[in-house]
């Protein structure tokens, strides 16, 4: 079923209505007001990274693929400063600990040293420690975050909504195919083309529980992206080619082509169920990280808004914690030593998926593809982080002040990606309701 990973992929009997009701009535409206806030709308990303796997096949010329640049003055100053301060403070804390570990004696008091960080430690030593700090933190990462690259830029997500772009054909297919192929652990590369599609058909009955979960997560993400393009479809184009406006709305025919049993050899409804699966994975991650997320300060420099965001986050996390049928992350990687290797393979495969995103030949799709894979990677990091687990078990988050290094940390970019990625899944489930209403006499989820 959606929440458990036992049994075959086709034997779900979980109640879609429960998730629909919970999402559409409680989660979706809250996310809608949260994600327009400054903290969440500006996302730092490198869209210029070269594809590491094959020569760039296209710099997409489709006009709806363009990402509108964000004017620097639109980004709250406080937010930029805070991001830099946060990174420096984190790296200094690590540096200080590393110095103590290595028997260095001239460690200054943290608070007083923060102000002149760069002078208290020689540049070279600082850089070296920074590298170690990054290496240490990256150990738990399921995803590559590129917000420190020189080419990384803030993008205003509200100016660049995820919707139909016209990106399709070989380039899009190559991306999806490469992503699904990451599921072929240990050379288990089955490529029979049962559905006359290029996506390798994996016989799910022969897969172990982790592989099945991997497939369902990716398939759920694929469904979500395709639901968005169906619900914000270009219904009528403006006659002026340079005019990006047009009439946008839901395209039921397109939705049916992509998901009805008749046009997908019966697979479409399963793909839609996988959307609910990934939704529950990310929901569980938010619930698990709730005590940590409540301590964040969501700083943009606009005091009133920051306080509002903190309250809204607290309210949403409480709703999420109240959900009864959470995904059980302990069903994965629980069988002894082999699991440790498997978990590492898994991480590597998800990291590869974030690299594949650099090969997407449509900037708008790349933006949202990167954001959603980063959000997913952050969710997996939360679910399988030993650091978070031990901080939670030792009651660290309940302490009024955390004096020591908080062990587990998410960057601003990871938090922004996590909430926005979850927002995308929540919107897809909400949009499903609209399609279901229109197609009321043709139940597509049965
Ligand atoms: P595709 O969606 O390309 O799917 C290919 C094959 O995969 C199908 O034939 C089917 O056999 C199988 N398949 C389809 N769905 C699933 C599923 N859920 N689970 C398992 N198997 C499945 N287009 C936009 O208009 N806007 C966007 O924002 C956008 N973002 C994208 C982001 C990424 C990262 C990628 C790779 C593509 C994006 N696209 C976007 C393109 C879009 O996803 C489709 O690839 C495109 O519309 C072509 O669709 P298609 O009918 O050929 O099937």
Mean pLDDT rating: 79
Number of strand elements: 4
Largest sheet: 2 strands, antiparallel
Give the helix level as a range of percent. 40-55%
- Radius of gyration from the alpha-carbon trace, in angstroms: 22 Å
Strand coverage percent: under 5%
Structural class: mainly alpha
Shape: globular
What bound compounds does this protein have? flavin-adenine dinucleotide
Total number of helices: 15
Would you mind describing this structure in some detail?
- The chain is mainly α and 446 residues long.
- It is built from 15 helices and four strands.
- It has helices at residues 16-34, 38-41, 77-101, 110-114, 117-120, 123-138, 169-181, 209-231, 252-259, 268-295, 303-321, 337-356, 363-383, 386-393, 412-438, and strands spanning 42-45, 153-156, 233-237, 246-249.
- The strands form two sheets. The chain has a two-stranded antiparallel ribbon. A two-stranded antiparallel sheet has the order 3-4.
- A hairpin with an 8-residue loop joins strand 3 and strand 4.
- Helix 1 crosses helix 15 (412-438) and helix 8 (209-231) runs antiparallel to helix 9 (252-259).
- The protein is globular.
- The two termini are 13 Å apart.
- 34% of the residues are buried.
- Mean pLDDT is 79; it is low at 4-13, 89-121 and 186-196.
- Residues 162, 164-165, 167-168, 172-173, 175-176, 195, 197, 199, 219, 222-223, 225-226, 229, 271, 360, 364-365, 368-369 line the site of flavin-adenine dinucleotide (FAD).
- Flavin-adenine dinucleotide (FAD) binds at residues 162, 164-165, 167-168, 172-173, 175-176, 195, 197, 199, 219, 222-223, 225-226, 229, 271, 360, 364-365, 368-369.
- It comes from Drosophila busckii (Fruit fly).
- It is found in: Endoplasmic reticulum membrane.
- This is Ero1L.
- Belongs to the EROs family.
- May function both as a monomer and a homodimer.
């Amino acid at each position: 079923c959606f929440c458990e990973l036992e049994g075959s992929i086709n034997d779900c009997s979980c109640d879609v209505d429960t998730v629909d009701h919970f999402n559409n009535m409680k989660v979706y409206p809250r996310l809608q007001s949260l994600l327009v806030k400054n903290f969440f709308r500006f996302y730092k990303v490198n869209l210029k990274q070269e594809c590491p796997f094959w020569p760039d096949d296209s710099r997409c010329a489709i006009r709806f693929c363009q990402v509108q640049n964000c004017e620097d003055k639109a980004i709250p100053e406080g937010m930029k400063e805070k991001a830099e301060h946060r990174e420096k403070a984190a790296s200094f804390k690590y540096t200080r600990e590393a110095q103590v570990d290595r028997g260095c004696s001239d460690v200054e008091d943290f608070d007083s040293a923060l102000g002149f960080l760069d002078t208290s430690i020689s540049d070279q030593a600082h850089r070296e420690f920074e590298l170690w700090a990054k290496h240490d933190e990256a150990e738990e990462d399921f995803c590559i975050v590129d917000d420190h690259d020189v080419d990384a830029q803030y993008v205003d997500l509200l100016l660049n909504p995820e919707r139909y772009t016209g990106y399709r054909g070989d380039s899009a297919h190559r991306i999806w195919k490469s992503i699904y192929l990451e599921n072929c652990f240990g050379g288990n590369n089955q490529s029979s083309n049962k559905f006359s599609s290029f996506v390798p058909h994996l016989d799910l009955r022969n897969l172990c529980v982790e592989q099945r979960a991997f497939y369902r997560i990716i398939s759920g993400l694929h469904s979500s992206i395709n639901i968005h393009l169906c619900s914000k479809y270009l219904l009528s184009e403006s006659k002026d080619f340079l005019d990006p406006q047009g009439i946008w709305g839901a395209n039921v025919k397109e939705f049916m082509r992509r998901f009805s049993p008749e046009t997908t050899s019966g697979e479409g409804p399963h793909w839609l169920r996988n959307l609910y699966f990934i939704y529950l994975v990310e929901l569980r991650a938010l619930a698990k990280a709730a005590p940590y997320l409540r301590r964040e300060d969501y700083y943009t420099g606009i005091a009133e808004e920051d306080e509002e965001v903190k309250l809204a986050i607290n309210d949403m996390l409480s709703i999420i914690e109240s959900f009864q049928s959470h995904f059980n992350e302990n069903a994965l990687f629980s069988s002894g030593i082999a699991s440790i290797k498997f978990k590492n393979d898994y991480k590597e495969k998800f990291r590869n998926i974030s690299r594949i995103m650099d090969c997407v030949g449509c900037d708008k799709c790349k933006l949202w593809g990167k954001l959603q894979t980063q959000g997913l990677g952050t969710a997996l990091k939360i679910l399988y982080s030993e650091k978070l687990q031990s901080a939670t078990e030792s009651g660290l988050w309940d302490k009024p002040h955390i004096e020591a290094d908080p062990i587990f940390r998410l960057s601003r970019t990871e938090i922004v990606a996590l909430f926005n990625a979850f927002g995308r899944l929540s919107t897809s489930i909400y949009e499903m309701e609209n399609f279901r209403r229109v197609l009321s006499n043709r139940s597509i989820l049965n």
